[in-house]
Amino acid sequence: MSAVPGESASTSSAGAGLGAAGGLGAAGGADADSTSPDLIRPVSLSLPQATAQERGRRRGEELRSLIRTAVDGYTAFFDARGIPRQMQASSAAASLEALHDWDALQHAEVLAVAEAAQVTPQELGLVVARTEVLAAAGAAEAECSTLAGLSQTGSGVGAQTWDWQVALAHLWHIHHVEAGEGTLGHVGFAEAGMLGKIGMNAAGVGVMLNILANDGDRSGGVPVHAVLAAVLNRATSLDEAREIIRSAATSASSTITVVAPDGVCMVEIGPHGSVELPVTGVAAHTNHFVADELQAGARELSAVTRSHERLALLQERIGGMSATGSADELAALLCTSPTEAPVSLLPDLQKPRWERPATLVSVRMDAASRSVGLVAGSPAKAEADDWVTLTA
Length: 392
Prior knowledge:
Blueprint: E1 2-5, E2 44-47, H1 52-62, H2 64-80, H3 85-102, H4 104-117, H5 121-128, H6 130-137, E3 144-150, E4 156-165, E5 172-177, E6 186-191, E7 198-201, E8 206-211, H7 224-234, H8 238-247, E9 254-260, E10 263-270, E11 273-277, E12 282-285, H9 307-318, H10 327-333, E13 357-366, E14 371-376, E15 388-391
Helix pairs in contact: 1-4, 2-5, 3-4, 3-5, 3-6, 7-8
């Protein structure tokens, strides 16, 4: 596994745009609420070959303070959204139980993280199952935009802007997970306490995520972030990724995009099942259901959503593309100006604490090279040498 700043051939630095391994940078402290996302310097975690429980223990030990901060941050976030503490706790516990039933080895790793981080499993569940806690309360949140397609050689490439609350911007970290019990090994980023999020595995299978909303969303399902981790842990092909996604009894609506050496797929997941959207050439997704079969109960994430505008803009940009030259090309299409639909979302730091959505991380990935590129903040503000390339 290696980390390469920009296009250079270094494996020892996390790059100019992201923090070096070993600690939270200057922008990750108590003033993170007022820090522009592009100034965040995340920690970088390396996990060597190990059993699942050993990986969990090491993750929990090395990220202990950040995991505690994440638990407290999500508790405050849910409080601000009016979700009672009892509902927070019961939703987290129910999703952890569902994870145990679906993927016992991953559940054991989560418990090891919690023990080493000195938080309860239920507390860690507020982070691991944060999407399901929000779904239980019918809460709507920040949005994301994703592009994925086939390269000239037929392998998968993708790019995404991950939009979330600025007050939680300091909770994400880079990780390099070596092959071991239950995992092929993978690279990418996650929020502190999660085993996986957006990334690429050693077989060249990568995942990205868009949150959707439906009146039938509820708590108690397998955490969607655990589904992402399972794909990264086990999938060696597009078909295996599809099988893992479809096997999970989820309860929060979302779209999981998979890029692999043998192709690309976008799978919408809702209360009425899952539907794979056809991908020919290059495809886009934002934060509303597209599949006709899943429209019953579908709703917008919020009253101020611009999901349809962002999708229309991206579809106009990719119109007629039968293939893409590179992940870099797709990432460039995610750059928007203040007068366009906000694919590159900049924060308004004058707004109240929990009303500051922004692009926290921009991503590009290439299945053929088993690589994922990351940069803090909006791609529209990033210079070429700000990007860090991780190779699984």
